[in-house]
Design goal:
The chain has nine helices and eleven strands. The chain is of the alpha+beta class and 379 residues long.
């Protein structure tokens, strides 16, 4: 849903821009028709005056033409040979006869069009009609429309390509989970058979651990089946999930790092609405990242779950390792980024996607003096 929002906004923006452009062009067409009608009336008035034998016909025609020019909205300033304004129409201010202000406006009109000098009359300084001024921005509008369409098209292609890749990966993950089902079932049968035999304590203990690992593989296989599918929404005790993750790493931490202590605390049940499989995956990914940060040096990892006073639940995973350098704090959640030589850089990225995109929560790196602390906030 979050990924579809930018695409929808881009589509709405393009539609709005195109709609506005169509409306604007129709307005321009209407204005052009009005200009053509006005020119036609002026032309007819001139010929009517030429055919009129009345001595005042010419003056009357000139007055009518002056009125049509005024209606056209063309700004005009007439100056004498000394440059003093003698007449002005369609000025953009309310004091048309303020000489200094009109002079300044005449100079501005000269930058738009070359003035016309009429012997015995003076110099005519004229500007553009509102229609011409509007048409001057049309090329920029067209460029903006084309640029917007190109950006929207590129974004759509990129989004489609990314969606296709994710669909392929989701299909491969579900197929892998399906293929794992048969050997897991077979291993379960063999472990059950071994458990029924009379064996020594070491073998019995090994069989119990094997059963636990097999159960773990089953949960991991189930995770891959969930990739690309909508998350479940059920009541989940996050404190119980955090404790289960802590116990899992506590039993296996000697094979992952040296002298690492896993601690877990909770202030009671921490119930949220969410997907238990995905939430366990997210907490496990952040915890594994903390343990890896302590690899070869020892240290402590603490997992705590707390119900917040303002509502919601916070799961905090903290370690006393070397911490995260300030210059890469903004990059730790990016897919593919890793400080480990053989790291894949998908753990924290996957965890944030599960927390933020699937559960509407937040996964943040908390500023600390030593070590690294990550908070998972769920509503």
């Amino acid at each position: 849903m979050r990924r579809s929002v930018p695409a929808m906004l881009a589509i709405v923006g393009v539609i709005a821009l195109l709609t506005w452009y169509v409306v604007y062009t129709q307005t321009v067409v209407r204005d052009l028709r009005r200009e053509a009608s006005r020119v036609g009336r002026m032309y007819a008035r001139v010929y009517d005056a030429l055919n009129d034998t009345n001595p005042d016909a010419a003056n009357s025609a000139l007055l009518d033409l002056s009125m049509h020019i005024r209606e056209a909205g063309v700004p005009l300033v007439l100056t004498d040979t000394a440059g003093t304004p003698t007449h002005a129409v369609n000025l953009p201010f309310d004091e048309p006869y303020d000489p200094e202000r009109v002079k300044e406006y005449a100079r501005r009109l000269d930058r738009e069009n070359t003035p016309v000098t009429a012997p015995g009359v003076g110099t005519v300084h004229y500007g553009n009609t509102p229609l011409v001024r509007g048409l001057k921005v049309v090329p920029y509008l067209l460029s903006g429309v084309l640029l917007t369409l190109l950006i929207a098209g590129a974004y759509a292609l990129r989004t489609r390509s990314r969606a296709d890749r994710e669909q392929i990966w989701a299909g491969m993950a579900r197929e892998s989970a399906h293929q794992l089902g048969t050997p897991l079932s077979s291993l379960s049968g063999w472990i059950e058979l071994l458990g029924e035999q009379d064996t020594d304590s070491i073998t019995t203990n090994a069989v119990a651990h094997m059963a636990g690992d097999l159960e773990r593989l089953g949960r991991i296989s189930h995770r891959f089946e969930r990739i690309g599918r909508p998350p479940k929404n059920e009541r989940v005790d996050v404190a119980e999930i955090a404790e289960r993750v802590a116990q899992y790493f506590r039993r296996r931490v000697p094979t992952l790092a040296q002298r690492v202590t896993i601690e877990s605390t909770s202030d009671g049940t921490a119930i949220v609405e969410g997907d238990p499989v995905l939430l366990e995956w997210a907490i496990e990914a952040v915890t594994k990242n903390a343990i890896d940060a302590l690899g070869g040096r020892g240290g402590r990892v603490s997992i705590s779950s707390t119900t917040l006073p303002e509502g919601g639940v916070r799961v905090r995973i903290a370690d006393d390792g070397p911490g995260v350098p300030r210059e890469i704090r903004k990059e730790v959640f990016e897919a593919g980024f890793s400080t480990k030589e053989k790291g894949w850089g998908i753990g924290l990225s996957l965890a944030r996607r599960i927390v933020r995109d699937n559960h509407g929560g937040k996964l943040t790196l908390v500023p600390t003096e030593t070590g690294a602390t990550f908070d998972i906030i769920l509503g």
